Amino acid sequence: MTTTLITGGTVVTATGRSKADVLIDGETIVAVVAPGSQLLGTDLPAGVDTVIDATGKYVIPGGIDAHTHMELPFGGTAASDTFETGTRAAAWGGTTTIIDFAVQTYGQRVFDGLATWHQKAAGNCAIDYAFHQIIGDVNADSLQAMDGLLAEGVSSFKLFMAYPGVFYSDDAQILRAMQKSAETGLMTMMHAENGPAIDVLVEQLLAQGKTDPYYHGVARAWQMEEEATHRAIMIANLTGAPLYVVHVSAKQAVEQLAAARDNGQNVFGETCPQYLYLSLEENLGAPGFEGAKWVCSTPLRSRAEGHQDHMWQSLRTNDIQMVSTDHCPFCMKGQKDLGLGNFSKIPNGIGSVEHRMDLLYQGVVNGRISLERWVEITSTTPARMFGLYGKKGVIQPGADGDIVIYDPNGHTSIGMGKTHHMNMDHSAWEGYEIDGHVDTVLSRGKVVIDHNEYLGAKGDGQFVKRGLSQYLI
Ligand code: URP
Ligand code: ZN
Ligand code: ZN
Ligand code: ZN
Q: Where in this chain does the record put each Amidohydrolase-related domain (predicted)?
């Protein structure tokens, strides 16, 4: 087993920062001690194979992106990142674990869907991976199968109030699934948008000749997100299910979550970098068909209405608990262009798995969040929320050696031909400049990124079984 010592850095966790050395033996952190202490420090213990100098840098737990869609079939095509390309890109950006969504399609059995996702991922990932289960068909057989999910290491499932005819659950199905969630402790994850009502708006806009990507954002109005979020909260309240609302973009939806939390309900919200930085006006409203790059659901919201500022504030106040990417990349050519002349045919999704840590660090630089909060919302809370904490999300003895050495004096220019390792023909983040840089990334003790060099390999990443959420009460 090789031993690695990271010296001279500032270890940052969700609760504080201190100068400390970190010793990793094989795949596991075995010691975290103040520099100069007897065990470690200036006098290296005999037998350390590799010493990494982290002087002037932050040493943080590897990022956990709890919402990705590698190879997701959608809109007549499939997300362009495979588990191989997507997890490699994640590693480049300082993410060392992803939780992807296994899909049960309509008419399929739950465990057949899960098995398909295992086949896609096994032996292909550069970093560790876990699964949530999409329940695309809530029926008696699926509800019974849900009893067996936890034993498979899958402790959460996603339902869709959007996309009628694809993944959609009606209120009766949501009620039954949430009863199962309350009974088993599995976290209910909800795509909260009123799909049937949105479909009417889509039809009406198209009939008026409003076919540009911008109208995707008009049709998926914030009222439809607020309404669905409220409905999900109320059914969760009735059933006692723990509820996690994914990709929250509307400030009114945040207010629903905040009110429910104030009321003592076990509900949580996730937002994504696109809802912090990008907007209906500037992105979806870009000239011609360009806005298709940013077609995702929930949609980008109006900056004039203040959704982005509100979302940053919610991260500070913990009305929103964490940030995932909802990484679901599609190329413009051959994929997004399926929706030329009809915005509703543009496959939904943005590729961001590589940039989440950097984009959120820029929030630290801009005074939006603290350094500790950065670690909390990108790593520690995701680990706690989804039953990975202890092994992931923290730097302490016994945890996996998943570590990022982040250089606050470095710089990252995001865009094609610069930092872009996702399998896409464009970047949704072209031109973003970050005052910081992912220097070194260790995944279970192995250096996978070393100063702009990729040293990992497909198959390094293992499937990680998850336990129940540590936020269950
Ligand atoms: O636009 C999105 N979000 N695509 C991925 C599927 C989903 O709803 O998360
Ligand atoms: Zn969704
Ligand atoms: Zn998603
Ligand atoms: Zn460097």
A: 58-448
Nearest bound ligand to the CA of residue 405: 4
Q: For position 35, what pLDDT does the model report?
A: 83
| Residue 392 Cα to ligand 3 middle (Å) | 22
Q: Choose which residue among 328, 330, 350 to substitute to test ligand 1 binding: the one with the highest number of ligand atoms within 8 A of its C-beta.
A: 328
The pLDDT of residue 60 is above 60: yes
Mutation test of ligand 1: which of 284, 326, 345 has the most ligand atoms closer than 8 Å to its C-beta?
A: 326
If you count DSSP H runs as helices and E runs as strands, how many of each does the chain have, helices first?
13, 22
- 3-60+395-450 CATH fold: Urease, subunit C; domain 1 (2.30.40)
* Domain boundaries, given as residue ranges, for the chain: 3-60+395-450, 62-385
- CA 297 to ligand 1: nearest atom: 1
Pick the CATH number of 62-385 from 3.40.630.30, 3.40.47.10, 3.40.50.11540, 3.20.20.140: 3.20.20.140
Mean per-residue pLDDT, 142-165:
97
Within 10 angstroms of residue 471's Cβ, the number of other Cβ atoms is 17
What's the chain's length in residues? 473
Q: What is the reported pTM?
A: 0.97
**Angle at CA 420, nearest 5°, toward 371 and 123?**
90
**Cβ–Cβ under 8 Å, residues 109 and 78:** no
pLDDT band at residue 42 using 50, 70 and 90 as cut-offs:
very low
Which secondary-structure segment (H or E) carries 101? strand 95-104
Measured from the alpha carbon of residue 296, the closest ligand is 1
- Which amino acid belongs to residue 247? H
Long-range contacts of the stretch 379-382 (C-beta < 8 A, 24+): 379/14, 379/60, 379/61, 379/62, 379/63, 379/64, 380/13, 380/14, 380/61, 381/14, 381/321, 381/322, 382/64, 382/65, 382/66, 382/99, 382/322, 382/324
Any idea which ligand is nearest the CA of 132? Answer: 3
Distance separating alpha carbons of residues 190 and 243, to the nearest angstrom:
7
Compute the distance from residue 447 Cα to the ligand 2 centre, in Å. 33
**Residue minimizing CA distance to atom 8 of ligand 1:** 297
Which ligand 1 atom lies nearest to the CA of residue 67?
A: 9
Q: Please spell the DSSP secondary structure of 389-448, one letter per residue.
A: BTTBSS-STTSB--EEEEETT--EEBSTTSB--SS-SS-TTTT-EES-EEEEEEETTEEE
> Phi, psi (5° rounding) for residue 412?
-130, 120
Peptide bond into 55 cis (omega under 30): no
